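User: structure tokens for this one?
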Amino acid sequence: MLAMRVSVLGAGSWGTTVASLCAGGQPTLLWARNPDVADGINKDHVNPAYVSEFHLPAKLRATADLAEAATDCDLLIVGVPTSSFRSVLGEVRPYLRPWIPVVSLSKGLEQDTLERMTQIVKQELPGHPAAALTGPNLAREIMAGQAAASVIATEDLAVATAIQRVLGRGRFRVYLNHDVIGCEMGGALKNVIAIAAGIGQGLGVGDNTRAMVITRGLAEITRIGVAMGAEPATFAGLAGMGDLMATCLSPHSRNRLVGERLGQGRSLPQILEELHMVAEGVGTAAVVLDLADRLGLDLPICRVIHGVVTGAVSPSSAYRGLTPAGHEADPG
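Assistant:
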């Protein structure tokens, strides 16, 4: 079988990790917006800006030329932040051959339209099969060779099977799921709940309290996902509970880290400036509230976290507000 040429757009920690996985079995080209990052990958086989402690496969090539990355690929994987997702797809449109599958790595919602990334793929690249890769995937653990699993979500399971063969490598397993809405909503909304969990860590609350918030957060994610057409079972799997647990508990999670520093009394602008990476949960907090209002849903944790990131609510008072009322039913 002929090798599938893969291009990954976005040389952040997760884009670099996925490109490294693909390079183990396929010719892979990684697009970096910064030419110095591309040079570092090609010359020294390290990404000087992200996951710099890991040696990258010698076969992995990088480029700062978007046209070069898109022109000859058989599979396009997009790992840029949600804020630039649509514009990058618009830039690659003239170079991409027809029918090439497009996989989103980006976990979030577009702020103006409230749309998921696969919806944007279908709008900007009509005729291209759209898929999402999501799950409990912390880049540094996967780069270190630790076992992990993810989900490739698309309505076309034949396309999903082909992508599965490309992405599955070593201890990294990829499972198929047809519930695209559920998988993408789980990946986007867990970032908001991770900020809540991080605030609890920063405030020094107990594990019982954080477990309560995480569990109630999963109920909110499921509630809005199902209202949008997702299947409830999706949120009990890798794309739901699995991703939520990893993001809420891991010290490598940037959204949890944002919450922790907020809980310690740091200001959000200072935190984001020091982070040097995008924490999608900050922007998603506002988007999910717009969605909830349109659907007539009550999402108290997401609403409180939106208040924290906008400065309307202090982290300490947020945790008082996150205590569930006694009359509510257990979501489990």
